[in-house]
Write a structure and sequence with these properties.
By secondary structure, this protein is of the alpha+beta class. The chain has helices at residues 15-29, 75-88, 119-124, 140-144, 157-166, 182-194, 198-207, 276-287, 296-302, 330-333, 371-374, 376-388, and strands at residues 35-42, 45-56, 61-62, 69-70, 229-230, 237-238, 243-247, 250-254, 273-274, 318-320, 325-327, 342-346, 350-355, 360-366, 368-369.
Length: 389
Amino acid sequence: MSLPLEKAETNRNSPLAAAVDAAITSALDDKRLVGTVVLVARDGEIAHRRAAGLADRENGVAMREDAIFRLASITKPIVTIAAMRLVEQGRIGLADTVTRWLPDFRPRLPDGGEATIRIRHLLTHTSGLGYSFSYEDGGPYARAGVSDGLDQPGLALAENLRRIASAPLRFTPGSDWQYSVAMDALGGVIEAETGMPLGEAIADLVMKPLGLADTAFSVRDRSRLAAAYMDASPEPALMGENAVVMSQMGPIRFAPNRIFDPASYHSGGAGMAGTAGDVLAVLETIRKGGAPLLSSETVAMMTTDQAGGHRQQYEPGSGFGFGWSVITDPVAAGVPFPAGTLKWGGVYGHSWFIDPVNGLTVVALTNTTLEGMWGKFTVDLREAIYAAL
C-alpha cells in the first residue's frame, strides 16, 4: 500500500508548521535532542513533516526523513496488530491460555501457587509479569538474568522465557496492571502458532500487506541507522556497546548493537527498527478503521480500555487497550488530547499519538533517550500542535 502521505507537500508557513518547528528547534538549540523526524498527518494527509538535527553527531551526518531508528516499544503496537490478525483468523483466542503454545511458561504467583495467564493478559499488561527496570535494583528479574528486549545480544527467546518463568509473578493475572515483558511472551506465542521466526510472521501479517519494507527486527541499510544517544549535560552522550540510563522507573539497560546480532531473539516488546514513515502508515491504518489488516470491530475493541480500569490508579485518566494507552479522561490525565486518543512511545526516544476526534496522527522519532519519550520535547510538541489547531 502506498500512502498519499508520501508525496504530500506541506505548507511551511502554516501556524501548525511554525509551532511544531519552534518545538523542534528549541529542543535542538537546548541540546536536549541530537536529531528527530516528526510527521504530522491530518485526515490522511501530511500537514507537516520535518527531519532536523543530526542522525550521527560524531560523523556529522544530518538527519533524514527515511532514517531508521531503534524503535523499542513502538514494536508493541505492531506485534499487537499481528496477534489480532491471528485472533480474527481464529488461530489465537483472547481467553486462551499461554501454555497452549508455550507449555513450559508457567511463572508462579508470589505465594508459590499456580497461575493462569491468558492472551488477553499479555495484550493488556495485566499478566503479573514485569520488566527488570520495574523492580528494585537486584530484584528477581535481575537475579534471573532476564532481558527486557533491549540488551544481552545473542540471547535466545526460549532461554529468556525460561528466565522470566523462573521469577514469581507480581500479582494474580487480571487483578492489576504492570508494564512488562508480556509482549515478548506473546512473540513466542506468535512464533509457535505460525511456525516461523517472529520477524517473518510480522512481515507477513503487517508489513507486506501495507507495502512497508524498512521496519523489521534487523537493519537492512545501516547507512540510514541513527546513532543512539542518552540524556547528559551539557549535551546528550553517545551510547556505547552497553549503557545504563536511570529513569523514573529504574535503571534501563541498553545494548544498541543488539539488533546487528542475528542470534538476538526477536523481542515482541522492544526489538524492531524502522522509519517514521512506516510507523505513521501502521498507525494511520488503525485510525482509518483497520483495513486492509483488521476489521473495524476489532479496532474498536483495541482502542477502548481493556485493562479493567487497573491502569488508572497509576496514571489517572489513562487506560490501556490492545497495544497502546487510551485517554479516558483528559482532565484527570492533564493532557490536551480528547478522550479516545491513543498514545505510547519508545525508550530509545520516541512518542506518537492518534487523535481520532481531530483526525490527527503524530509520530516523533528521536535518537535521544529519554528526552524523546517523555521529556520537555514531547510536551512542547503536543502543546504546539493543539495550540495551532
